[in-house]
Design brief:
It is globular and about 50 Å long. The protein is of the alpha+beta class. The chain has a single domain, classed as 4-Layer Sandwich (Phosphatase 2c, domain 1). The chain contains 7 helices and 12 strands. Helix content is 29%, strand content 31%. β1 and β2 form a beta hairpin. The strands form 2 sheets. It has a 6-stranded antiparallel β-sheet with strand order 1-2-12-11-8-9. Strands 3, 4, 5, 6, 7 and 10 form a 6-stranded antiparallel β-sheet that branches.
């Protein structure tokens, strides 16, 4: 397996980002219905669903519309929601997406500046996730839109029972499957040496939160962390497509040694 490239972008004199991303079909699926975009300032993962090629079309249509948004040079919640509505129209109009259940999750972050302060805006539709490693803790930033999450929130099942639950793959919100609801948003401040993990459930089915934290501790470089987590997910079964992005924040006037466009 070739090593994943780590990209670097100097946001300002005192803020630099490093990131890497990868997607893999996994060990059991015939095709890959995941897609991702990792281009400053937007980093997102989409996990498609639907019969035939529907899921692949849904995830790629969504990523394509978001890539055009980045090309336009502005990323805000309003811009993002307009792009998602265009993606929904693309999905519905595509000749191969006849399944009413066709759609995709979408989760990730974009970098925003508010009153001179940098912040991450995490966004989520579905059960793909954003995690934050800060210090020695791993925090799940997003909340799943899923039946099992609703059961956990109501106290009917424990988090440990969720993975084996018969409704573990049933999500309650998606892009394209029904009328578009806006993403949930969470604001996260920017701190030195923070690590962000954006992933489809193909990763979290195979790695516990502690496993993700372990590989982030062992691999400061985002490319090495991505490769280690993908390898572990495949070794643990690779039951689904696996997609993840790892972002690393560096502040305090560090200078970039590697120029990169963010592609």
């Amino acid at each position: 397996m070739p090593e994943t490239t780590t990209h670097t972008h100097s946001v300002s004199d005192d803020l630099r980002l490093e990131w890497a991303g990868v997607t893999d079909r996994g060990r059991r699926r015939e095709n890959n219905q995941d897609a991702f975009l990792a281009r400053f300032p937007l980093f997102v993962v989409a996990d498609g669903m639907g019969g035939h090629a529907g899921g692949e079309i849904a995830s790629q249509s969504t990523i394509s519309r978001l890539e055009a948004l980045v090309d336009d040079g502005t990323v805000s919640a309003r811009d993002l929601e307009e792009a998602l509505q265009l993606a929904v129209d693309d999905i519905h109009e595509h000749p191969e997406t006849t399944d009413e259940g066709t759609g995709t999750t979408l989760t990730g972050v974009f970098l925003d500046r508010d009153e001179g302060e940098w912040r991450w805006i995490a966004l989520n539709i579905g059960d793909s996730r954003v995690y934050l490693k800060r210090g020695e803790r791993l925090i799940q930033v997003t909340t799943d839109h899923s039946v099992v999450q609703e059961l956990i929130a109501s106290g009917k099942i424990s988090p440990e029972e969720a993975d084996g639950h018969p409704y573990s793959n049933v999500i309650t919100r998606a892009v394209g499957a029904n009328e578009l609801l806006p993403p949930d948003y969470v604001s996260v401040d920017v701190q030195d040496d923070d690590r962000l993990v954006i992933c489809s459930d193909g990763l979290t089915k195979e790695l516990t939160d502690y496993g993700i934290l372990h590989f982030l501790r062992e691999n400061p470089d985002p490319g090495a962390a991505v490769d280690a987590m993908l390898e572990a997910a495949l070794e643990n079964g690779g039951r689904d497509n696996v997609t993840l992005i790892v972002l690393r924040v560096m502040t305090g006037g560090s200078s970039s040694t590697e120029a990169d466009s963010g592609d």
